[in-house]
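Key result, reporting period 2: structure in, sequence out.
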């Protein structure tokens, strides 16, 4: 996500000819987009995104269980 934001900022600065970015090559300005695509491809291929999604769901599930236990007057389990 950071690479995408850097790419957008560099693209706007290049298009509006602001600062030193105006003299940079288009290849340099557009390279963060290529790196973002490479990162997403790697993350999907090696299961990084799926693992983060499962961790997020597990945290939400545990929070829901803890909330229900607190509502019943039971202490939540400690990890």
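The corresponding designed sequence is given below.
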């Amino acid at each position: 996500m950071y690479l995408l934001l850097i790419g957008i900022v560099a693209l706007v600065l290049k298009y509006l000819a602001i600062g030193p970015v105006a003299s940079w090559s288009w290849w340099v300005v557009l390279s963060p987009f290529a790196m973002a695509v490479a990162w997403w491809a790697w993350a999907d291929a090696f299961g990084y995104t799926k693992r983060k999604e499962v961790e997020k769901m597990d945290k939400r599930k545990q929070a829901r269980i803890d909330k229900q236990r607190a509502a019943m007057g039971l202490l939540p389990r400690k990890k």
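The chain has a mean pLDDT of 90. The two ends are 31 Å apart (CA to CA). This case is discussed further under Risks and Mitigation.
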